[in-house]
């Protein structure tokens, strides 16, 4: 490839370079040393300034980065009570196929108490229970004197201490939808998601999924939603009824769950969204095996007239009627497998103290133990709600889609970190929360923005300039320190004419 210079360029930097190129036919013949050898210090400075100016002008011409494309839709699915180690104990081929193409977090550290309502609200707010106010699946509010139960959860007053993502995303111009997620059929801040299904346990997974796919697709009148949540009651229901150690029952329930995951994947493929939508599959808590041999009876320690019982097991919430201290002392020595806490003494790590709905005394049963008021009847063979440091209480996290890396596994993550992760995927500014995006970053696909390209370009040119300058300085220092530096100076002095073809420099 021939390189030609136009003779009319009368710039001092060009002439020495011309001398090189005139003697070289092919680019491969030109060496950096030749170029360096041809340039004096002043010329080198000029070259550097020229390149710097070019870089600045180029950067200025790029202007502000082009607007980002809209984020892919995000589907968040919760299979209630999916204990993390079910993944190791049961086949789950569809779920494994899903996260083999994406990411898996083997255990999520969820929030205390490890019940359904607190944890589902934490997933979509990034807040601990004491911060979002849904402190249990059964609650009492001392201000309003109201009681909350899963079957009577539609009073908006309970949900106002936080704002779930399906509401916050509306403010970013995103359309959202919810299918049976706890709290999603309640007006929060006088708003609901763009679409929602009132809770009805009789609606099948296929029917719920049918709504989800329609919402994602949109229609002639309205565009598809960008964020949708989907809730399913299993394997929690079977876990409570038969206990998580019942392999026969759990195998059947988890086969159905896995079939539902397969149905979800095939439906997303059928409508052309698989691979174009980010899908998160997770849960709220695990499940512990209970036994009639592990009962704690409150009546053995305290007459029921002394307190009101708001929640029973495995975290009992009590409102003493009179002497709180005396009630606490009786309960504190009640049973070796139950720990009593005054509200002010609940361990900081549980993040379960600073809310008026947390009652003056709570009793925490050890794993697998059940608190009852009296009798020998075990209400259920499986339960959850225990200390959130127990692996049996942990769910898992799996995800796939354009926002996630492929084939990545992590051992653990906090469930409150999922909220900032979802906000990042949706480009929604998160509300104040207890989570962090940083622990979840290894799950995310690398993103290359226009700003990144500009930064890389600037860095490359900057490094090139630096190396060029260093090479010149190094060569100049060598010349100064070499034994024939005197003759070098003499030669340079005698060849001060840029147009001289004598080529006496740097030989
Ligand atoms: Zn649950």
TrEMBL record:
Cellular compartment(s): Cell membrane
Gene Ontology MF term list: hydrolase activity; metal ion binding
Keywords, alphabetical: Cell membrane, Disulfide bond, Glycoprotein, Hydrolase, Membrane, Metal-binding, Signal, Transmembrane, Transmembrane helix, Zinc
Cofactor: Zn(2+)
CC annotations in GO: plasma membrane
Superkingdom of this protein's organism: Eukaryota
InterPro entries: Phosphodiest/P_Trfase (IPR002591)
Keyword Plastid: no
Membrane spanning stretches: 455-478
Annotated coiled-coil segments of the chain: none
Protein family according to the UniProt entry: Belongs to the nucleotide pyrophosphatase/phosphodiesterase family.
Record protein name field: Bis5
Lineage: Eukaryota, Metazoa, Chordata, Craniata, Vertebrata
């Amino acid at each position: 490839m021939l390189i030609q210079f136009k003779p009319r360029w009368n710039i001092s930097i060009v002439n020495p370079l011309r001398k090189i190129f005139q003697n070289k036919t092919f680019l491969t013949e030109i060496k950096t040393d030749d170029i360096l050898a041809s340039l004096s210090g002043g010329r080198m400075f000029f070259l550097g300034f020229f390149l710097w100016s070019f870089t600045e002008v180029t950067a200025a011409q790029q202007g502000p980065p082009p607007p980002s494309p809209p984020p892919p839709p995000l589907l968040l699915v919760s299979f209630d009570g999916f204990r993390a180690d079910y993944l190791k104990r049961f086949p789950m081929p569809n779920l494994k196929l899903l996260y083999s193409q994406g990411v898996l977090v083997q255990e999520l550290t969820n929030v205390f108490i490890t019940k359904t309502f607190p944890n589902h609200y934490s997933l979509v707010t990034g807040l601990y229970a004491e911060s979002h106010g849904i402190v249990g699946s059964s609650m009492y509010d001392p201000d309003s004197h109201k009681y909350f139960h899963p079957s009577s959860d539609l009073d908006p007053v309970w949900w106002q201490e936080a704002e779930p993502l399906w509401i916050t995303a509306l403010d970013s111009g995103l359309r959202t939808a919810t299918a049976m997620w706890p709290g999603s059929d309640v007006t929060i801040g006088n708003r609901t998601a763009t679409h929602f299904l009132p809770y009805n346990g009789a609606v099948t997974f296929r029917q719920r999924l049918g709504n989800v796919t329609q919402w994602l697709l949109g229609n002639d009148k309205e565009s598809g939603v960008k964020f949708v949540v989907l809730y399913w009651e299993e394997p929690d229901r079977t876990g409570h009824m038969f206990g998580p150690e019942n392999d026969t029952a759990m195998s059947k329930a988890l086969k159905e769950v896995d079939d539902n995951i397969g149905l979800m994947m095939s439906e997303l493929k059928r409508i052309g969204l698989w691979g174009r939508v980010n899908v998160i599959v997770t849960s709220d808590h695990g499940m512990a095996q209970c036994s009639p041999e592990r009962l704690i009876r409150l009546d053995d320690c305290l007459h029921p007239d002394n307190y009101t019982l708001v929640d029973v097991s495995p975290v009992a919430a009590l409102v003493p009627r009179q002497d709180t201290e005396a009630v606490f002392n009786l309960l504190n020595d009640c049973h070796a497998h139950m720990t009593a806490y005054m509200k002010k003494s609940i361990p900081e790590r549980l993040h379960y103290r600073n809310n008026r709905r947390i009652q003056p005394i709570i009793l925490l049963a050890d794993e697998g133990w059940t608190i009852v008021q009296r009798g020998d009847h075990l209400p259920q063979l499986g339960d959850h709600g225990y200390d959130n440091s127990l692996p049996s209480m942990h769910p898992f996290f799996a995800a796939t889609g354009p926002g996630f890396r492929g084939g990545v596994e992590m051992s653990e993550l906090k469930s409150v970190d999922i909220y900032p992760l979802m906000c990042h995927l949706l480009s929604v500014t998160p509300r104040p929360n207890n989570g962090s995006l940083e622990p979840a970053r290894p799950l995310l696909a690398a993103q290359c923005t226009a700003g990144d390209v500009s930064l890389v370009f600037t860095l490359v040119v900057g490094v090139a300039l630096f190396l060029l300058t260093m090479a010149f300085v190094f060569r100049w220092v060598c010349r100064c320190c070499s034994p024939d530096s005197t003759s070098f100076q003499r030669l340079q002095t005698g060849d001060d004419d840029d147009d001289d073809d004598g080529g006496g420099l740097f030989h």
